[in-house]
Amino acid sequence: MSKVKLGNHIKSYAGGTPSRGNMDYYRNGTIPWVKSGEVCRKYITSVEEKITEEAVQGSSAKWFPENSVLVALYGATAGQVSITKIKGTSNQAVLSVNGLDDFDNEYLYYLLTHSTPELLVKVQGSGQPNLSKKIIDELQVELKELAEQKKIAEILTSVDKVIELTEIEIEKLKNLKKGMMQDLLTKGIRHTKFKDTPIGKIPESWECSQIKDLIKNGFIEKVQDGNHGGAYPRVSDFTEKGIPFVSAKNLHEHGYVKFNECPKLPESYLPKLRIGFGKPGDVIFAHNATVGPTAYVPNSGQDFIVSTSTTLYRSNSEKLDNYYLYASLLSPLFQTQISKVMGQTTRNQVPITAQKEMYLTVPPLNEQNEINNAVKAILGTLISKEEKLQKLVSLKKGLMQDLLTGKVRVKV
């Protein structure tokens, strides 16, 4: 199948921005006006700003029909594509694209989405600062029969719907996890009698202590960050194999360390280090630059070294279960205290001295284990859903490559 120049088979034009100096162009406006930042999802059904008919007449803003394909030409969303489900106008950073008799707009949306990397490469090689109508019009594409285009769009849309539903499920699970952990770490399980503490009411049989007191009373054995100054590893010190060097960026949001992404230090470097040696069962909290992510290294895990951006926690398992400690640092109770500290400084960090002033709740060990099981269950479900989402995204990517390039043909 031969390729054609896209511009010969579409109608495309960018919009404009009515003068901000004339408030009559915006006051009581009824005409949707799309900005490039809003071209970030498949369908656009509403917009932030509306303009007046006078604004359209007095500027280069242009009407586009419902179901138009919109492409962000520059800005944070450059290259992203949407379909508008409303009739409206746009600014100059948005290109409206409509297939003429040869292209179905739903198919055109997927075609341009798939072509985004190619278009952005062409921008870099053209000497132009942004995507443009010319670059998009000159795109070489295969021209399929309309019936095949519609079938391809139908297949990809069905995958998109499953992806969307999975994303909704994940968001609901995240909200459920947050609410459940707040309840578990402050109300516990099956309690009817509560007492007042500095962080609010907790079960009568629980303790509420600052981290410094948990250290003093033997509940927590170690709280330390990595090596500062001359002992801090340089890029040249890292090797292909060795002990993982863990920083904040290596902590997954669902509580595990991405050891495969960690740089490695050789055994021969370890004598240069004074602190920061981690082992299975430890908990890691990100306290600098990226603040808040928390991870638990299971007992079946491996030794590691923490960087200065993370705090290493080690509990006395006879008093405080290590997984419960992880859940405590991840909980809204602890994270809220972190946010308050962050709000009192312009520096994006929560040093160990500040962490030690924070409160944790400590139930009896048997209830710690019950809480652990509940947290593990919700996290397990969440991770499973996210793995499903990754597979769906990968499936869609493969389908787009096969169907849009003609590698695999669709029978109609």
TrEMBL record:
The coiled-coil segments of this chain are: 136-183
Give one Pfam family, short name only: Methylase_S
Which SUPFAM superfamilies has this protein been placed in?
Answer: DNA methylase specificity domain (SSF116734)
- Where does the Type I restriction modification DNA specificity domain lie? 4-174, 203-391
Any one GO MF annotation of this record: DNA binding
Question: Which keywords does this Swiss-Prot/TrEMBL entry list?
Answer: Coiled coil, DNA-binding, Restriction system
Q: Name one GO biological process term.
A: DNA restriction-modification system
Question: Could you tell me which InterPro entries the record lists for this protein?
Answer: Restrct_endonuc_typeI_TRD, Restrct_endonuc_typeI_TRD_sf, Type-I_RS_S_subunit
**Which family does the record claim for this protein?**
Belongs to the type-I restriction system S methylase family.
The name of this protein is Type I restriction enzyme specificity protein
Organism of this sequence: Halobacteriovorax marinus (strain ATCC BAA-682 / DSM 15412 / SJ)
- Which lineage is the organism of this entry classified under, starting from the top rank? Bacteria, Pseudomonadati, Bdellovibrionota, Bacteriovoracia, Bacteriovoracales
